[in-house]
Design brief:
The protein has helices spanning 2-33, 54-57, 69-73, 136-146, 238-241, 246-253, 263-270, and strands spanning 46-49, 61-65, 80-81, 90-100, 106-114, 120-124, 133-135, 150-153, 157-160, 172-174, 180-191, 194-202, 205-211, 233-234, 275-278, 285-290, 293-298, 301-307. It contains seven helices and 18 strands. The longest helix has 32 residues, at 2-33. It has three domains: 39-136, no CATH class; 137-238; 255-307. The radius of gyration is 24 Å and the shape is globular. The protein is an alpha+beta fold. The strands form three sheets. The protein has a seven-stranded antiparallel beta sheet.
Amino acid sequence: MKLNSLRLALMVMLLVLFGALGTVWAANSQQESSPHLTPDKWIGQSFTFLSLPAADQAAGYEIFDVELAKQGFNGDHSARIPYAQNVSKQVTVTDVVTYIASDNQYEYIIYLEENESKQKLVGRTSRGQLEGLVLTSDLAKAQKQFLGKTVYVKLRTIEGLYDPQTITKPLSIPTKIGSAVNVVDVYAGMKSSEPIWLIVVTDNQKAFIPITYSLTNVPSNFCQQDPPWQEKVMLNDFRATSGWSEELWNQIDAGIVNLGMTSEQVRFSWGAPASISQHATDPNVSIWKYGTKTLNFSGDKLTSIESEVTP
């Protein structure tokens, strides 16, 4: 009897122990797999320097050698690290210091180390973003997910591919929402808010679609769905699988939004809103802003459209 009681007690202890470990493992797994890293979680993360437009290359990156940080933060452009010596290189975040900016928003001083030379660098975020960098793992994941695949665009035009070394940009290429394009390359782009370029072929022309793979290193007020790259492309033929009527798709193709549309249908028609907020007294009502237009949703249905009155 005593032996059975001892075995039972031991089993209970093991269950409690493994339960606690399971909770820790689950928490760690969730943290590691989370695609959206706020700057306070950047320590140990690798970032890659983006290309810069030709007009900005002479000024370099707004990141400084630690010895020149003070004058760099005071606006001295000569303190910036040069473009040619750093483009495509990788840096690792070694420390992050949080402070309250003049607009009472949290901002961050980001300390970095260049992976090859071990040069110590420092930058300062604006709205939670350090311009000129892409999370290296985001780039690798995007390459694995999209390269060689067919994607379906949620755009009416895409930009023709051009050489970042030149200022002249080719004309936009008109597309139909839901068009299939083939991804022939994936590489780092030029803006941290959409730092990854999907190089695609459509109508025998090369073009690029800039995407955000995660919300890491984008402005803190950036409004995107999850995963954020779905604002631009989908992996499935959504026109064929949506079940929406031809009339509804004609409205979406024409950029028309009508009452009764779902939030997804509005996104297809108008793209991402500038902001989303909840109603002050009714948590079931969400408010989407598009320029001078305010769209009110009850649950997932568009119930009213308001136009801002200009004086």
